[in-house]
Amino acid sequence: MSEQLLTLDLLADWLRRYAAIVDEHKTYLTELDSAIGDADHGANMARGTAAVLTHVDDATTIDALLKKAGMTLVSTVGGTSGPLYGTLLMKMGMATGSVVELSAEDFGKALRAGLEGLVARGKTELGDKTMVDALAPALDAYDAALADGSDLHDAVAAAAQAAAAGRDATTPMVAKKGRASYLGERSAGHQDPGATSSTYLFDALADVIGA
Amino acid sequence: MSEQLLTLDLLADWLRRYAAIVDEHKTYLTELDSAIGDADHGANMARGTAAVLTHVDDATTIDALLKKAGMTLVSTVGGTSGPLYGTLLMKMGMATGSVVELSAEDFGKALRAGLEGLVARGKTELGDKTMVDALAPALDAYDAALADGSDLHDAVAAAAQAAAAGRDATTPMVAKKGRASYLGERSAGHQDPGATSSTYLFDALADVIGA
Amino acid sequence: MKKLINSPDDVIADALKGVEASDDNVRVDHANRVIYRATPKEAGKVAIISGGGSGHEPMHGGFVGIGMLDAACAGQVFTSPTPDQMLEATTTVDTGAGVLHIVKNYTGDIMNFEMAAEMAADAGIPVETVVVADDVAVQDSLYTAGRRGVGTTVLLEKIVGAAAEEGQDLGAVKVLAQKVADNGRSMGMALTSCTVPSAGKPTFDLPEDQMEIGIGIHGEPGRHREPIGDAKSIAKQLVDPILQDLDFTGSPVIAMLNGMGGTPLIELYLMYGEVVALLKEAGVEISRNLVGNYITSLDMAGCSLTLVKADEEMIRLWDAPVKTAGLRWGL
Amino acid sequence: MKKLINSPDDVIADALKGVEASDDNVRVDHANRVIYRATPKEAGKVAIISGGGSGHEPMHGGFVGIGMLDAACAGQVFTSPTPDQMLEATTTVDTGAGVLHIVKNYTGDIMNFEMAAEMAADAGIPVETVVVADDVAVQDSLYTAGRRGVGTTVLLEKIVGAAAEEGQDLGAVKVLAQKVADNGRSMGMALTSCTVPSAGKPTFDLPEDQMEIGIGIHGEPGRHREPIGDAKSIAKQLVDPILQDLDFTGSPVIAMLNGMGGTPLIELYLMYGEVVALLKEAGVEISRNLVGNYITSLDMAGCSLTLVKADEEMIRLWDAPVKTAGLRWGL
Ligand SMILES: Nc1ncnc2c1ncn2[C@@H]1O[C@H](COP(=O)(O)OP(=O)(O)O)[C@@H](O)[C@H]1O
Ligand SMILES: Nc1ncnc2c1ncn2[C@@H]1O[C@H](COP(=O)(O)OP(=O)(O)O)[C@@H](O)[C@H]1O
Ligand SMILES: [Mg+2]
Ligand SMILES: [Mg+2]
Ligand SMILES: [Mg+2]
Ligand SMILES: [Mg+2]
């Protein structure tokens, strides 16, 4: 069992770093969404994460931090990614309880609860060419690393790597969910924007824990 | 006094030739009109002269030929050039009387009557950057050539040359009439479309009499 | 050229078929290219016709119907209709009370309507003419063909149409029409040129970062071009020359923020917000407004602002019922 | 990017100012970005709200008023509004008789409206939802997010709005809404892409000689692209897949030939003429029609056709008075 803990401060930093990465890549995200969607994913995510930033200092517990972040995404992003990312974070917050630090394992359980909420909301399966195709393998890799005795540092690195691989794997897929599905076969050959912004979640975490 | 006569057939050929030249240059006329007008002069003149063609065979006298041609232009062209070219030909027809051939002098008088009608309708002066800037010098050159003892052939050649010079002289002018006048100083540097299509009248005449 | 057409030569004929199929308020004389009211006006009332080049839809055909025009003559794209069309329309709509011709101030329109009016007079039909010349972008009227007739035409057709509908006589209708014309001012701008179907390419080239200020409705280039500004500064370039030309304070004002054909409504609303803010600052009070595509220039992106300085009577006539494809209320 | 805006971030806020200034039928809640009727509906009548991403004007805000919507929630450009907005609108418009949510079938819209409906139910407000999914361009509904909601939304808002206005209860209004949704089909095409303000460039590239068939209203690329055909052949590409999907003979039909925002009205009339000719051939009888910009996609050039198979009752409700910026008759 890993000794390292994820503190309130670290998770606040995670959200801050995520916002920074999204902002940095918003043009790129919108370009990806132009090819198989409606050219707003970058603007959507940048608007939402910027709104999250205005609240991260207020939280005194991890559940409050994550729930508030999730609700903020829901009420500022709209579109598809608002309810989905919002649900992910809200369900994570509901799973942690009112704490100020989390074990690597408990953080993994919270992520899993978040993903389940997201999948229930989005009615997605793996292989539909959505953010789930990055999130699910990332969580699996994270859990597997911890089970293999890796520390948080390595587990997050493994998750980030798996997320990136999952994201890359969306490129040849034919979309079955979301706006890209209207394109049918023409959706193949393009990387999914949501899978891309999901990968940034793990990049951000790796950055803040120094993985 | 010139010996040559302008016959009904020759004048019918003149209108046919004019239609052909206009049709050949309609894109060019529209381009000229794009720069300082509304991009329709070529289409307007091509439509009108094509309609005139459907009647040239019917006429048994010169006045009927010209009046019908003028009325056809009025009722098929519209815009600025319809009433103006229409008036030119109608007034020419009214001036010739019910004949089947005209002396060079009488043709000149008819042209003069036509121009006067056009100027009255358009309320233009020389130098306003309009078709009058090609027509008026052409008529003056024609009359002067005949007065100097030239034959029809040379008078028409002189008219065509003067029309071309008049047309070229419109380029530096600032328009004071028609759509180009809205541009103010920006109208300078562009050749007037109407002066250009007017010049074709004399080119066509030169062609059919072999000048 | 990207257009939903069959061929440049058939645009008007084909579009008139669609007008006939879609608009219950009108019937179409395809041979003469005249759009008439489906049900003619009662005898004894002044009839009103207008017309002009096509490419400005809904003007004029979309304004034929109860409370507005009795007929509209459709010319070729950007080309005045011919005297034959106007004479035919004038003869057909006259109920004995005479006919008002609403003419926009362009050399071609003036001459063609003039010839038609001469022929109608010959045929014994009393005709009066009002010429709209409201475009403040045309400055030196002495050295030009005079100001172009643009947006005021739409508001005039509505107001004067109501007066004719309620039975005012030709003299009164003409005086009212002149009053509206005298009290209307417009100013327009473009982000892109339009493309005339028969020309097949844009009338003027406008670089990606430039706009044209002071355009008319025929793709004529404007007075000058400059880098595209924000909506606030563009609004100022529309409002200022209009207010410099006529004092709009102290009277009710009818405003129209008009799209040129290729401008989305969201941008027109946005521009209207900016225009209203500037007018409020200047003490101008807007009583009635239109925001949308009313007098367009094919696919041009851009907009124009029209203000008409009204009085209580003009506002009353504005509010009167109207039933046309382009403007409808109270019916 | 050529747009009449101040900045991409301010488009919605600024446009709502213009809506407020121009449209007497509505009042605007700027904080929540909800457009409400200026005068709320009488107590005891079912209220109707809709909403969606912006960029489709006049839909939905332009359909708020007597005989149509009670409120419209404005999202960011092409982005569903948030549950907060819909909950706020639902709570505000409920007169005690419950609220109908009109939702277009997009993943985002479905989820956000779903969350709002859950919260409204929690607050004790009866909410029913109708989902419009009428775009026949989306073929394999099993392998996609299902058909997109497009043009039928406009006709549904009118018909159902009339039913609510005359006092039908929530159950009846919901049944009627579902019936309209089930009987509506649409198909669209584009000559150009639109440009989302925050993206700053066209969503897709379309060569000068190509068109995109089967587009939606968000600049999503369509099903395929091909060389631009003439209006007749384009009309066929709109009509055929609709008629293949549903039998429109034997009933009155309401048709809408809709412009995508950058298409001039003259082209829409022309296309409508071609569409009507094809429908006549196929034995389809059009009872009512709309030709114009009703559900747009920013500055996209192109058009869509919507047919709703109606019955006498739906036609009666269609003809009932309506007073909104986007649709108006009888008032
Ligand atoms: N049903 C779904 N479940 C999970 N993710 C989805 C679903 N539908 C779409 N997505 C994700 O949402 C992304 C698009 O988000 P965004 O562009 O913000 O929303 P919208 O499609 O409403 O414009 C897609 O790239 C995809 O990853
Ligand atoms: N008042 C006028 N008198 C004589 N010619 C004129 C006058 N106004 C314009 N023109 C001529 O008409 C030409 C334009 O014709 P055309 O493009 O067919 O008509 P419009 O300007 O109505 O589109 C100009 O190039 C000019 O030569
Ligand atoms: Mg998107
Ligand atoms: Mg011209
Ligand atoms: Mg013209
Ligand atoms: Mg979106």
From TrEMBL, chains A, B:
Keywords recorded for this protein, A-Z: Kinase, Transferase
A molecular-function term among this protein's GO annotations: glycerone kinase activity
Record GO biological process: glycerol catabolic process
UniProt GO cellular component terms: cytosol
PROSITE patterns per record: DHAL
Pfam entry (one): Dak2
Residues covered by the DhaL domain: 9-207
NCBIfam families linked: dha_L_ycgS
PANTHER family, alphabetized: TRIOKINASE/FMN CYCLASE, TRIOKINASE_FMN CYCLASE
Protein name (Swiss-Prot/TrEMBL): Dihydroxyacetone kinase subunit L
TrEMBL record, chains C, D:
Pfam families, A to Z: Dak1
Any one GO molecular function term: phosphoenolpyruvate-glycerone phosphotransferase activity
Pathway: Polyol metabolism; glycerol degradation
Leading EC class: transferase
The UniProt record lists the keyword Transferase: yes
Top-level taxon of the source organism: Bacteria
Domain DhaK: 7-329
Reaction equation(s) it catalyzes: dihydroxyacetone + phosphoenolpyruvate = dihydroxyacetone phosphate + pyruvate
InterPro entries: DhaK_1, DhaK_dom, Dihydroxyacetone_Kinase
GO cellular component labels: cytosol
This enzyme's EC code(s): 2.7.1.121
GO biological process: one example: glycerol catabolic process
Keywords associated with the record: Glycerol metabolism, Kinase, Transferase
Signal sequence segment: none
Assembly and binders: Homodimer. The dihydroxyacetone kinase complex is composed of a homodimer of DhaM, a homodimer of DhaK and the subunit DhaL.
Record NCBIfam families: dhaK1
Name of this protein: phosphoenolpyruvate--glycerone phosphotransferase
